[in-house]
Amino acid sequence: ETITIATVNNSDMVRMQKLTDDFTTKNPDIQLEWVTLEENVLRERVTTDIATKGGQYDVMTIGTYEAPIWAKQGWLLPLDKLGADYDVDDILPAIRGGLSMDGKLFAAPFYGESSMVMYRKDLMEKAGLTMPDAPTWEFIGEAARKMTDRSAGINGVCLRGKAGWGENMAFLTAMSNSFGARWFDEKWMPQFDQPEWKNTLDTYVKLMNDAGPQGASSNGFNENLALFQQGKCGMWIDATVAASVVSNPKDSTVADKVGYALAPDTGLGKRGNWLWAWSLAIPAGTQKAASAEKFVAWATGKGYLDLVAAKEGWANVPPGTRTSLYNNPEYQKAAPFAKMTLASINSADPTKPSVKPVPYVGVQFVAIPEFQGLGTTVGQLFSAALAGQMSVDDALAQAQQVSVREMTRAGYIK
Amino acid sequence: MARATSVRRTAAFTIAAWIIALVIFFPILYTIITSFKSETEAIQGFKLIPSGTFESYVEVQTQKDYFKPFMNSVILSVGSTLLALLISVPAAWSMAFSPTKKTKDILMWMLSTKMMPAVAVLVPIYLLFRDFGLLDSRIGLMVMLTLINLPIVVWMLYTYFREIPGEILEAARMDGASLWGEIVYVLTPMAVPGIASTMLLNIILAWNEAFWTIRLTTTNAAPLTAFIASFSSPQGLFWAKLSAASTLAIAPILIMGWFSQKQLVRGLTFGAVK
Amino acid sequence: MATQQTRTLARFMMAPSVGLLLIWMIVPLAMTLWFSFQNYNLLNPANVSFAGLFNYKFFYTDPAFFQSIWNTLVIVVGVLFITVIGGIAIALLLDQPMWGQGIVRIMIISPFFVMPPVAALVWKNMIMHPQYGVLADINRALGLNPVDWFGQYPLLSIIIIVSWQWLPFATLILLTALQSLDGEQKEAAEMDGAGFVNRFIYLTVPHLARSITVVILIQTIFLLSIYAEILVTTNGGPGYASTNLPFLIYRTALLGYDIGGASAGGIIAVILANIVAFFLMRAVGKNLDK
Amino acid sequence: MGNIQLKNVNKSFGNVAVIPRIDLTINNGEFVVFVGPSGCGKSTLLRLIAGLEDTTSGTIEIDGRDVTGAAPAKRRLAMVFQSYALYPHMSVYKNIAFPLKMAKMAPAAIDKKVQDAARVLNLTSYLDRRPGQLSGGQRQRVAIGRAIVREPSAFLFDEPLSNLDAALRGNMRLEISELHHQLKTTMIYVTHDQVEAMTMADKIVVLNAGNIEQVGSPMELYHKPDNLFVAGFIGSPKMNLVSGEIAKPYGAATIGLRPEHLTVSKTEGKLSGTAGVTEHLGSDTFIHVRTDGAGMITVRAPGDTDIRFGDKVYITPDPSRIHRFDEKGLAIR
Amino acid sequence: MGNIQLKNVNKSFGNVAVIPRIDLTINNGEFVVFVGPSGCGKSTLLRLIAGLEDTTSGTIEIDGRDVTGAAPAKRRLAMVFQSYALYPHMSVYKNIAFPLKMAKMAPAAIDKKVQDAARVLNLTSYLDRRPGQLSGGQRQRVAIGRAIVREPSAFLFDEPLSNLDAALRGNMRLEISELHHQLKTTMIYVTHDQVEAMTMADKIVVLNAGNIEQVGSPMELYHKPDNLFVAGFIGSPKMNLVSGEIAKPYGAATIGLRPEHLTVSKTEGKLSGTAGVTEHLGSDTFIHVRTDGAGMITVRAPGDTDIRFGDKVYITPDPSRIHRFDEKGLAIR
Ligand SMILES: Nc1ncnc2c1ncn2[C@@H]1O[C@H](COP(=O)(O)OP(=O)(O)OP(=O)(O)O)[C@@H](O)[C@H]1O
Ligand SMILES: Nc1ncnc2c1ncn2[C@@H]1O[C@H](COP(=O)(O)OP(=O)(O)OP(=O)(O)O)[C@@H](O)[C@H]1O
Ligand SMILES: [Mg+2]
Ligand SMILES: [Mg+2]
C-alpha cells in the first residue's frame, strides 16, 4: 500500500524524508510517496484538495491555523489510534491545545515554534547594553537605534515587512498582542481604529525607519535570515527554529555571537511571540487511514526524535513538540537556545492571545477561513506604511474599512 | 547588403551586442554561478567566481529525485505539443488555404479563450478533474496543456502555412492524393521549419507552465515546475540549492533552445516573409 | 483552392480545434458564471446559497478594485512598451554583422526558457534585493544608496521582470521579420539617399507592422493574466501598489477561498480582456491582413 | 483517350462573371493552346477542367463521362503548374513517383516507370537531387515527368515556361513538342508567348474577357483572324491597324497590315512618313514609321537596312495580304 | 554628366574571383547594355558601380572623381532593381517623392517633379495607389519614375523587364529608349534578352565568367563577333556553329552560319539534310534540319514555306556572311 504525504519543504521535513527507511523496514507493506512544496503552494494545494474531496493525499502537513478550521468541518480523522507508546500527554500543552477539538487530537505536531529575539552579543556589548532575558519594546527600540551603523552595513533590528498573512502579519499580530491590541472584539468588530493598534504600528514603523534594513517592506523570514547570517542585523525577532540555523557555523558567519531572549512586551502581561506547529493530519476521505496513522505515529513519536539524534545529532531534532525533549540534558547541551524556545512556546496561549478577550483562537492569526485573504490585504496596507507610501493612520483606517467589509460579508457582523 | 562593412563598424556592433546580451543573460548566468557556491557563499555579496562546489546539486538530488519530474516534464511538454499539432494542423490548414470572412474572427476568438485568469477557474477545473478521475494523471494534464496552448499553436501554424504556395497542394490533389495524403505527404513535410519552431515554442510554454502543473498533480504526473516549487523559500538558507534546482529545471529546455535556435528564428516569422 | 468539396472539408478539419476550444471555453466559463452567483466559500461548503449579483458588487467595491485594473493596464502597456521598443532595438542590432552572433542571439533569447516563478525569485533575491542583490552591490560600488526596488517602485520592478521574460519573444519575432525585409528595398532606399534613421522610419517600421501586431496581441493575452511574479516578489504590496486584477482574484480565490467572489472577478477579468482586445483589434488588427 | 467537352460553362467569383459562357470541344490527341491578355480567364478555364474550381453552371465531360462534380484526382488529368509546384522536400525521384505512390502502385512498377520517364527527360543523373538543387530547365522537366508517369488522358500546362530565360525556353519548347509527338496525348497549354502559341499548337483558342474570340490552327489565326482582337493579338510585332480615310478605298472600316508584309523604301511607295526609332536585331530591323495620315506603323525590314532615325521613307503593303475589318471589328472576307 | 571608368576592378566573394579584372569606360550619355549568361557577374558589376558592393581591388571613377570608397548615396546614381524594390507601404506618389524628400527638397518642388514624372510615365491616375495594387508594367514605371526624378548622372537598370510578359515588355522597351533619347543621360542596362540588348544599346558589353569578351555596338557584335562565345551569344535563333571537315575549305576550325543567312530549298543546295521540327511563327518559319555531316542546323525560312517535317532539304549559306574561327575560337578576319 502506498500512501501519499504532502509536506512543506523545510529542513526538518526534508530530513524526515531521508530517514523513512526506518519506517519502511518496520512496515514493509507500506510505501511512501512524497509531495514536497513550498509553504504557500502547499497550503493552497491541500486546501483545494480537502475542500473538494479530491482525495489526493493520505497524510497532509498542516499548520495550527488550518487544524481547528478543518477539524470543525469534519475533514480530518481524529488521531486516537496512535499507539500505546505514543504518549500524547508528553506533547507541549500549548501546542496540543491548538491542535485539538473537544479533547481529541486532530493533527500530530511534527515540530513547533514560537518567536523570540535573536541578537548579536558582540554588538550589544559595543552599544554598552545588556539584553535582559525578557526585554521590553522600549529596550529593543533603544538598543536597535544604538546598534545601528548604516555605514558599516549594520541595522539594529530586522523585522518582517513583506506583505502576507503569514509574513508581516504573523509578526505584527503577535507584536500587537503585547501592545494590548486585538483583531476583533467579542462581537467580531475589527479593532484597527483603536489606539492599541496605532501604537503598535507606530512603534514598528518608527523602529524600522530608524534601525531597520533598506527594503524591509519586501523582507520575509528568509530575507531576514540571510541578513542576520551575514552579520547585518543587530537583532532579529522571528521564529525560534531560526536559532538552529544562525547558531550553526556551517551556515552562519555569526554563529558564535548569537544570544537569545524572549520576545519583547510592554508590561501588559502578553509578550509579542507567536505559536506555530507544523503537524501531520489525516484527511477524512482517505482509504488508507490505518497506514497513514501508523506513519503519523512514527514521524511524530518519541522514537523519531531518538532516531534523528542518533543519525544527525541532537541539534537537528525537530523542536518544540515534546516536554521530554526539553528535559533531555543532551538536547539542552546541543541546543543552547532550548531553554528560551521552551519558555517562548509556553508563554503563548492560542486561546487567550491578547490582553483583552477575543472570540477567536490563534496567536498570530485568527483561525477563521477568511483570515488568509483579509490578513494579506491588511498586510499589504501595513507594508505600504512601512515603505512610506502611506501614513500609519491611513493604513489603519483602510485596514479597518476592509476588515469591516469582509467580516460583514462573511456574516460575523450582523 | 553584401557590402563588406568596416572592421570598426563590426567591432562597435559586436561590443554593443555583447554588452546587451550579457546584461540580459546575467540573471541566468548568475543563477548558474550561484548553484556552484556553498550556501553561505551564496549570500555573501557579489562574487562571479564560485568556489566550484557541487554540494548543492548533491543535496538537491538527495532531497528530491530529479529524474521522475524531468521525465514527466518531457512527456507532458512533448506529448501536449504533439497532441496540439495533431488537431491544429488541420485547423490551420483550412484557415490558411480555405479562408472565409470569419477566419480572422475565429483566430481572435481562439486567443480569447486564454483570457480567463487561471486562478479564477482553479476550483471548477479541479472539480472537473476530480470527477473525471484525472487528478495527478499525465493524460489529463497533457490534454489541459494542449488546450491552453492550442490557440498559440493555431496562430503560428496559420501564419506559417500562409506562406506555402497553394499550388503545391493543388498539385498533390491532381496527383491523386487524398486530403490525408495531401496533409501527411506534402503540407507537413514542407512546413517542417514552421512546425518545428511552433513545436519548440509550445514545448517551452508547456515546460514552463507553473500553475496547473503544480495544482493538478501530486506525485505521478508532477513535472519540474513542482520540483522547483519544493526548493523555493523553505526555512533556512536556500539560494544555492534553489539555484541548483533552477539550473536543473531550465537546463534541458535551455539546451534544447540553444540547439534549435536557428529553427526558432527561421520559423517564428508569423507570415512576415513575402 | 476553392471547390465546394474542399470548403466542406475545411470546415470539417477545423471542427476538432474549434470544438475542443469551445468546450474548453464554455464549460469553465459556465461553471464560473454559475459560481459567481453563489455564496460559496470553499472552507465552508455547508453554507452554499444563491447570491444574486452580490459577488459582483462585493468584488467591484473592493478598495483595491480600480487600482488593480489600473495596475493591470499599466503592466500590460509598460511591458509592451519595453518589449516592443527594446525588441526592435535589439533585433536591429542583431541584424548587423558581428562576431559571435550565434552566441549573442542564444544569450538574448534565454530568458524565455526560464519558468516565471524561478525568474521572479532570481530577480527578487539575487538582482534587485537592496541588501544583497547585484544591483545594490553595483550602487554601493558607485557610492550610491541601493534602491529599494520592491518597496519604492513595486510596479516598475514587476514590469522590469516581466519585460525581461518577454523581451526574447518580441526580439525573436521582430528579428525574423527584419530578416525578411527585402534586401533590394534597403539598397534602393540607400541609393535614394536615405540614411540609417530614415531607412528605419520609412522602411523598417512599416515592414515590421504586422509582426509588431502579433507580438502585441499574443503578449497582451499573456500579460493580462500575470500574477506569479507578483506573488513571489511583492505579494501585491506595498498597499495595493502592485495588485493587479489576477492577483486580486488570486487573493480572493486562493487565500480567501471565496469561490463566488473569485468567479465574479474572473468574469470581470474576461470582460475587461475582451474590451482591451476589442480596442487592440481596432487599433492594430488591420495590420494582420497584409 | 482524352476527349474534353465544355458545355455552357459559366464561372463567377462572387458576382463577377469571369467566364460568362463557354462551349469548347477538345479532341483526343490535340495540342490546344489558350492565349489571351492577362486576366482574361485562361488559368481559370484550365482549373475548371482540372477540377480545382467548381463550375458555377454548365457541364464538363471527359471522354463522354460527366465529371462536373468529380474531384481532381478522379479526372485522370495531369497538370504542370506555372510555378512547377514541385514538392521541395522530396527528391526528383520521389517527386516523379508521388502520383504513382498515391495510386498505390507496387514499388517495382513505380521504379520502372520513374526510370523510364527520367530517361526520356534526361533526368537520370539528377534523380537523387532536391528541386532546389536544379536549374530552372531541369525543374521544368521534373514537373513534366511527374505529369507523364501517370499516363493521364490529358495534360494541362499553365504557362509552364514563363519563368525561364530565353535560351532555356527555346529548348524546352522543342522538348514539349517532341513529347507530344511521342505520346499523342491531348495537351492543353496556356501561354502568353507568341512564339510558343504559334509553334506548338494544333489549335489555338483566343480568349478575351472570358469569351472565346476565335478557335483555329495557328496559321488560320495568322492568316485569317476573325476580328480585330485576334488580328492584334496574334503575330509579333503586332499587326498595324489603320482606320479612317486610308481604309476606305479597301471597303473596310479598318485595315490591318502586318509589319512583315510591308516593304519600306527611301524613294517611293504608297504611304509616306518619317522613320522613328529603328530597332536593329541583326537578323531584322523594326522600323517605327510616323506616317503622314496613318499614324505609327511598324515595318520589318532586313537586318542590313540603311534607314536611320529621321529618314524620309515610303511604305508599300503587299496588296494580297491586307486584312479588312468592318465597323464592328469583324473580318470582311 | 555621367562618365564612368572602371580601372583594374577585381571582385571576389571569399576566394572566388567573380570578376577577375575588368577595365571599362562608359561615356557620358551612352546606353550601355551588359549581357552574358546567368551567373557571369552582370549584377555584381552593376552593384560595384552603384556602390552596393565594395571592390576587392581597383578603382571606380565617376566624372573623373574617385568614388571607390564612397557610399551609394554619394554617387548620384539611380538604380532600378530587377524586383523593382518599391516601398510597399507607400503610395506611388510617395514612392516617387522619396528620394526628393531624402534630399530635403521643398514640398512644392517635390510635387512639381513628381507630377511631371507621372505625366511622362502615364502614371498620373495611379498616384494614390499602393504598389500592390498595380500591374507589373505599372510597377516597373514607378520604379523608373523614382529613378528619374533625381536627375542622376547615370541610371543603372538590372534586368528591369524580366518580370513582364511579352507584350508589356515590348512597350516598356520603347518607353525606356524614348526616355534615353529625351534625357540623354548615361544608362547601364543588364539583360539576358537578345531583343532588348540589340535594340536599345549604343554599346554592348558581353561578359563571360566575369571577363569582358567583347565591347561594341550591336551591329558590330552581330556582324563581327570576336570569338565563338560572342558569336553564339548574340543573335536569335543562335548562330549555327559547324566544325570539322565542312569548315576546312574555309580555312577555319569552325564556321558560323546564322539561321537568317541560310536559304533552304527542296531541290538543291550545298548541304543536304532532313527537316526536323518546323516552327511556324506566321512571319517566319524556323526549320531544324538534321544535316548529313554538319549536325543540327537551324534555318530561318519565310512564313509561307511549304517544307514539312521529314522532307528532304538542301541548305545554302550566303558565302559573304560566313563567320570563320580558328582553333582557339577567335575570329579570323
Ligand atoms: N479567387 C478569385 N476570386 C476573385 N476573382 C478571381 C479569383 N481568381 C481569379 N479571379 C479573377 O478572374 C479573372 C481571370 O483570372 P485568371 O487567373 O484566369 O486570368 P489569366 O487569364 O490566367 O491571366 P494571367 O495571364 O495573368 O495568368 C481575373 O480578373 C482575376 O482577377
Ligand atoms: N554574395 C555573394 N557571395 C558569393 N557569391 C556570390 C555572391 N553574389 C553573387 N555571387 C556569385 O557571383 C557570380 C555572379 O553573380 P551575378 O549575380 O553577378 O550574376 P549575373 O550575371 O547577374 O547572373 P543572372 O543573369 O543570373 O542575374 C555568381 O556565380 C554568383 O553565384
Ligand atoms: Mg494565369
Ligand atoms: Mg543578375
TrEMBL record, chain B:
Principal location listed in the UniProt entry: membrane
Subcellular location: Cell membrane
Topology within the bilayer: Multi-pass membrane protein
Coiled-coil boundaries: none
One Pfam family matching this protein: BPD_transp_1
Domain of life where this protein originates: Bacteria
Transmembrane segments: 12-33, 74-94, 106-127, 139-161, 182-207, 238-259
Protein keywords: Cell membrane, Membrane, Transmembrane, Transmembrane helix, Transport
GO terms under cellular component: plasma membrane
One annotated GO biological process: transmembrane transport
InterPro entries linked: BP-dep_ABC_trans_perm (IPR050901), MetI-like (IPR000515), MetI-like_sf (IPR035906)
Species name: Rhizobium setariae
Protein name in the entry: Carbohydrate ABC transporter permease
From TrEMBL, chain C:
Membrane topology designation: Multi-pass membrane protein
Keyword field: Cell membrane, Membrane, Transmembrane, Transmembrane helix, Transport
Domain of life: Bacteria
Protein localization: Cell membrane
A Gene Ontology term for the protein's cellular component: plasma membrane
InterPro entries: MetI-like, MetI-like_sf
Start and end residues of each ABC transmembrane type-1 domain: 69-280
Pfam families: BPD_transp_1 (PF00528)
Gene3D superfamilies linked to this entry: MetI-like
Transmembrane segments: 12-37, 69-94, 106-123, 155-178, 208-228, 248-281
GO biological process: transmembrane transport
Family recorded in the similarity comment: Belongs to the binding-protein-dependent transport system permease family.
UniProt-recorded name of the protein: Sugar ABC transporter permease
Organism: Rhizobium setariae
Classification of source organism: Bacteria, Pseudomonadati, Pseudomonadota, Alphaproteobacteria, Hyphomicrobiales
TrEMBL record, chains D, E:
Signal peptide: none
UniProt entry tagged with the keyword Cell inner membrane: yes
Main location: membrane
Name of the molecule in the record: ABC transporter ATP-binding protein
Gene3D superfamilies according to UniProt: 2.40.50.100, Nucleic acid-binding proteins, P-loop containing nucleotide triphosphate hydrolases
Localization in the cell: Cell inner membrane
Membrane topology: Peripheral membrane protein
Keyword Nucleotide-binding belongs to the record: yes
The ABC transporter domain, residue ranges: 4-234
InterPro entries named among the record's database cross-references: AAA+_ATPase, ABC_transporter-like_ATP-bd, ABC_transporter-like_CS, ABC_transpr_MalK-like, ABC_transpr_MalK/UgpC-like, Mo/tungstate-bd_C_term_dom, NA-bd_OB-fold, P-loop_NTPase
GO cellular component terms listed in the entry, alphabetical order: ATP-binding cassette (ABC) transporter complex, substrate-binding subunit-containing; maltose transport complex
GO molecular function terms listed in the Swiss-Prot or TrEMBL record: ABC-type maltose transporter activity; ATP binding; ATP hydrolysis activity
UniProtKB keywords: ATP-binding, Cell inner membrane, Cell membrane, Membrane, Nucleotide-binding, Transport
Family: Belongs to the ABC transporter superfamily.
